[in-house]
Design goal:
This protein has 783 residues and is of the alpha+beta class. The protein has four domains: 300 residues, no CATH class; 132 residues, Sandwich (Immunoglobulin-like), CATH 2.60.40; 176 residues, Rossmann fold (3-Layer(aba) Sandwich), CATH 3.40.50.410; 100 residues, no CATH class. The chain is 18% helix and 33% strand. β34 and β35 form a beta hairpin.
C-alpha cells in the first residue's frame, strides 16, 4: 500500500515527485514550519532510513583541526531514492571540499553559486545520474541531498573542513556536533523561502537511538607536550606516542552515540598555549594568524557597579535537564552579585514575563530571593519567541552610570538567528552580551553569534556533571574583565585584509586571535596593547622569528570563512547585492561552502532510466535529554492522508519588518497548572482621539477606530511601550489609511514599524468626508 501526502509543509521538503514514507495529522497550527515525528507507513518497499553511518577522522596540528566527515547511504528498499539529510557542523568550520564514491568511481565535487548548483543537481537527478549536493542552511547547519540511489546501492560522501581551536583558561576544546536540534518556527510553510524548509524535519521520539552508526577518531599533534586529555561526552580510549602526540578513538559502546555533541578537551604542559604567529606563503597570497594570551584577571575592587539582566528560555525544549541546570546556574550567579549591583530577570517562551517592569532591582538579599523564586517556578512549556523577548529586555529602563550586562540562557532551538544578531548589534551601546547554551545538542551558531555581536563570551553546558564548574567559571568571567582599550599595531610587517579590524574588550581568559594577509618578507613586529585594570599591558612578537609552513595551508580557508562570517552572519542580515556578490566571490575563489555557494558532485553515468525516484528525509534523533515537547506535541497518524490546508490556514503570513520576524497571532498564555508562569494578556487601547477636522464627530471616529485596535496586539513584546506613544493617521475620504506616523521620543524601530504596518491596513468603513482627515490616537496598554 502506498501513501500519498497532501500536507503542504511536508511537500516543500520532499518535492512533487516524492512518495510518502510517513504521515502526520495537521493540527490547528499546522501552517507553520514545525518539526514533526516520523511515522513509518505499511509500504516496506521504500527505505526511509537510507543513512547507515556517519564518521569523522580528525587531525589536529597545533591550533588547526582538519576534519573529514564520511556519510554512507545505502538503499535497502526496492525503489530508487533521493535522500535528504540535515546535519550540523562547528560554527567555525570552513568547508573546502567534497567527494562522492559509487563502487570504484570517485567524483570530486565542484563549487558553484547556490542556484546553479541546485539546477545542476536537479538536472542530473532527472537524467537518472547519481549526484550529491551540499548546501549551507546556517553557518552550523548543512543539508545533503543524494539523488538516484538504486536498490542495493551504497554511496559514500566525504566532506572536508578545517577550523581554528581557541583555548579558554588554558584548555583547548574540539567540538564535533552530531545532531541538529528541533527548531521552533512560527513561519508559515506556504510562504516560507526554500532556504527555511529544513526546519520542518522529521524526528524520532525521545530516547530512541539514532538509526545510523557513529564513529570518530582524533589524531592530536599538539606542538607542545600534552598534559591531559578528556572526553566528557563519550567513552573513548587514548593512546600516546611520545609527549606531543596522541590518538583518541571512540569506544565500541558508543556505536549509536550520535545523539549528542562529541567534545574533546586537552591541556598542554604547564597550562601553556601556542601564542605567536602562524605563517603560510601561497602562490598568489600569503596568510598569517596571530594568537596572543591575555593577562590574568584583575582584582574585583577595580570593577565598577553593574546591572545584570538575565533572559531565561522556559520553552518546551528546555523542560527537564536544561531548565534544571538553568535554575542552578542562575541561582549561583544571582547569589554572588555585589550589594552595589542591580538585577532583573526576563522569562520567555511563547510570551515573556519580567521581574521588574521599571528599573532593575538593587541586589539586596530580599530581591535576590525574589529573583530566584521567580525562576524556580518554571517547568518548561510553549514556543520559543526569543526575538520579542530580546527586544523587551533591551528596551528596559536603564539605571544611570551603570554598565549593563545581559545574560541569555537557552538551548537556541530557533530559526531567527540573523534577526537576533541584528537586534543586538543595533541596540548594542556599551552593553556586554553573554550567551549560555544548555543541552546535549545546543544550537551553537546562535549562542556564539549572540556573544560575538554583543562583545561578550559564549558558554555551553552539555551535561549535569559539568554544570557547577561551568557556572563558577562563567560567574568569574562576567564579573571581571581582563583587557580593555585593546590596540593592535604592525611595525614593519606589511599586512592587509586583517580580521577583525578592531578588537573589543577581552572579558575571558582566552587568546586574542587575528587573521589576515601579508606581502613581501615575513619581517617586523606585531604589538598588542591595552589596559589590565589600571596597568598598561603590551605584548610583542617578531614576524622574522617564525617560518612560513605548508602545514598552515588551512589559514587561507580560515581567513575566508572569517570574512564570510562578518559579511553574512552579522553585517549582511538584510539582502544586499554587493555583500552577496562578495560572499559568492570568496566562496568560488577559496573553494568554500557559504550561504550562496554550494558543492555539487555528478556522476557521468545514467543509472536510473527515466529519473523516477522516491524522496525521503532522513529522520533525526532528538538530542540526548531533549523531550518530545521540543517538537511541539504533534499528534501522529499512521494510516490516514489529509486534504490540503485551507485558504485561511495558508494565508497566515509571517510578518517581517526589515529583517526582524514579528510573531503571528499571540499564543495563549501558559497555565499555572504545571507551575509555569501565567502571563497577562496585554492589549493596546486608545486614549482620547483628536481630529484635524472639527466637522467629523470624535465619537464617530472613536467608534470606527476601536474595532481595529486588536490588530495592534501583534506588536506586543517588541520593546517597552512608552507612555507618550501616539499615532498620527491620515485617512482618505473613502476611509482608507494613507499615511501613519508614530509620535514618540523613545519607541524603538521594531515597535514603530510594526504599528505603521498594521495601521496601514485599516479601512474605516462608514467614514465619508469631503477630503482627507488627520487624527491623533494615543495608545495605552491594558492587561
Amino acid at each position: 500500500m502506498r501513501w500519498k501526502i497532501a500536507i503542504i509543509f511536508l511537500l516543500v521538503i520532499a518535492g512533487p515527485a516524492a512518495g510518502a514514507a510517513f504521515a502526520q495529522e495537521v493540527p490547528d497550527a499546522g501552517t507553520t514550519l514545525s518539526p514533526y515525528f516520523l511515522v513509518k507507513s505499511e509500504d516496506t518497499s521504500t527505505d526511509v532510513l537510507p543513512l547507515k553511518s556517519t564518521s569523522a577522522d580528525v587531525d589536529i596540528a597545533g591550533v588547526i583541526a582538519d576534519v573529514r566527515v564520511t556519510q554512507v547511504y545505502r538503499n535497502e528498499g526496492e525503489k530508487t531514492l533521493e535522500a535528504i539529510y540535515v546535519f550540523p557542523a562547528s560554527t567555525r568550520a570552513a568547508v573546502y571540499g567534497m567527494t562522492m564514491t559509487i563502487g570504484d568511481r570517485t567524483i570530486k565535487a565542484r563549487i558553484r553559486e547556490r542556484e546553479q548548483a541546485r539546477l545542476d543537481y536537479e538536472q542530473a537527478k532527472q537524467e537518472g545520474k547519481s549526484a550529491s549536493l551540499l548546501e549551507q542552511q546556517r553557518p552550523n547547519v548543512f543539508q545533503m541531498n543524494v539523488a538516484n540511489i538504486l536498490p542495493g546501492d551504497e554511496i559514500k560522501v566525504e566532506l572536508s573542513y578545517t577550523e581554528l581551536l581557541v583555548p579558554t583558561d588554558g584548555t583547548y576544546e574540539f567540538v564535533y556536533p552530531t545532531v541538529v536540534g528541533p527548531r521552533y518556527s512560527n513561519l508559515p510553510a506556504a510562504s516560507a523561502p526554500s532556504s527555511e524548509h529544513w526546519v520542518a524535519n522529521p524526528y524520532l521520539k525521545e530516547g530512541e537511538a539514532p538509526p545510523y552508526t557513529f564513529d570518530i577518531n582524533v589524531n592530536l599533534s599538539a606542538g607542545l607536550p600534552i598534559q591531559k586529555i578528556s572526553c566528557p561526552t563519550h567513552s573513548t580510549s587514548v593512546d600516546y606516542d611520545g609527549k606531543w602526540f596522541a590518538s583518541v578513538n571512540l569506544d565500541e559502546s558508543e556505536t549509536f552515540g550520535g545523539n549528542r555533541d562529541f567534545i574533546l578537551n586537552y591541556q598542554l604542559a604547564g597550562g601553556e598555549i601556542e601564542s605567536g604567529l602562524l605563517l603560510y606563503k601561497g602562490e598568489e597570497e600569503n596568510f598569517f594568524l596571530l594568537m596572543v594570551q591575555p593577562p590574568r584577571r584583575i582584582e574585583s575592587r577595580f570593577i565598577p557597579p553593574r546591572e545584570f539582566i538575565f533572559i531565561v528560555d522556559v520553552s518546551g525544549s528546555m523542560r527537564g535537564f536544561p531548565l534544571d541546570i538553568s535554575k542552578k546556574l542562575l541561582r549561583d550567579l544571582i547569589s554572588n552579585l555585589q550589594p552595589t549591583d542591580r538585577l532583573n530577570v526576563l522569562l520567555f517562551a511563547g510570551r515573556s514575563a519580567v521581574l521588574s517592569q521599571e528599573e532593575s532591582l538593587p541586589a539586596t538579599a530580599e530581591n535576590l530571593e525574589k529573583a530566584i523564586a521567580f525562576i524556580d517556578r518554571q517547568q518548561g512549556a510553549g514556543g520559543t519567541e526569543i526575538l520579542p523577548a530580546m527586544s523587551r529586555a533591551l528596551g528596559l529602563p536603564r539605571p544611570e552610570g551603570m554598565a549593563r550586562t545581559i545574560v541569555t540562557v537557552t538551548d537556541g532551538y530557533v530559526r531567527v538567528e540573523p534577526e537576533v544578531f541584528d537586534l543586538i548589534r543595533t541596540s548594542l551601546g556599551d552593553a556586554n552580551m553573554f550567551a549560555f547554551g544548555i543541552g546535549s545538542g545546543v544550537n551553537r551558531h546562535i549562542i556564539e553569534g549572540m556573544a560575538h555581536v554583543g562583545m561578550g563570551e559564549p558558554f555551553v553546558v552539555t551535561n549535569r556533571e559539568e554544570a557547577p564548574a561551568e557556572a563558577e567559571k562563567f560567574r568569574k568571567y562576567i564579573q571581571s574583565p581582563v583587557l580593555s582599550h585593546v590596540e593592535l599595531e604592525f611595525e614593519g610587517f606589511d599586512t592587509y585584509d586583517v580580521e577583525p579590524p578592531a578588537i573589543p574588550d577581552v572579558l575571558a581568559e582566552r587568546p586574542v586571535v587575528v587573521v589576515g594577509k601579508w606581502k613581501g618578507e615575513a619581517a617586523g613586529k606585531v604589538h598588542l596593547a591595552g589596559f589590565s585594570g589600571q596597568s598598561r599591558y603590551v605584548k610583542s612578537y617578531s614576524a622574522g622569528g617564525y617560518q612560513p609552513m605548508e602545514t598552515n595551508s588551512g589559514l587561507r580557508y580560515l581567513w575566508a570563512r572569517h570574512r564570510v562570517m562578518i559579511l553574512d552572519d552579522f553585517n549582511n542580515l538584510r539582502q544586499d547585492e554587493e555583500h552577496k556578490q562578495e560572499i559568492v566571490n570568496l566562496g568560488l575563489k577559496y573553494n568554500l561552502l557559504t550561504r550562496f555557494t554550494s558543492f555539487v558532485a555528478i556522476d557521468t553515468l545514467v543509472r536510473a532510466e527515466g529519473g523516477d525516484s522516491e524522496t525521503v528525509t532522513q529522520p533525526l534523533p532528538l538530542p540526548q535529554g531533549v523531550p518530545d515537547s521540543a517538537v511541539g506535541g504533534v499528534k501522529m497518524m499512521a494510516s490516514q492522508a489529509y486534504a490540503p490546508l485551507t485558504e485561511a490556514q495558508s494565508s497566515m503570513l509571517a510578518r517581517r519588518i526589515d529583517g526582524a520576524q514579528v510573531p503571528g497571532p499571540a499564543p495563549e498564555p501558559m497555565s499555572d497548572k504545571s507551575g509555569d508562569f501565567a502571563l497577562p494578556q496585554p492589549v493596546f487601547a486608545m486614549g482620547e482621539i483628536q481630529s484635524s477636522d472639527p466637522a467629523v464627530p470624535l465619537g464617530k471616529l472613536a467608534a470606527l477606530v476601536k474595532p481595529h485596535m486588536k490588530s495592534l496586539n501583534i506588536c506586543q513584546g517588541l520593546g517597552q511601550v512608552p507612555s507618550d506613544l501616539k499615532l498620527e493617521i491620515r485617512i482618505a475620504k473613502d476611509g482608507k489609511v494613507e499615511k501613519v506616523r508614530v509620535l514618540s521620543a523613545t519607541a524603538n524601530e521594531y515597535l514603530r514599524k510594526c504599528l505603521v504596518e498594521q495601521v496601514g491596513k485599516w479601512q474605516l468603513e462608514g467614514l465619508r468626508n469631503k477630503g482627507t482627515v488627520t487624527v491623533i490616537v494615543p495608545l495605552i496598554v491594558r492587561t
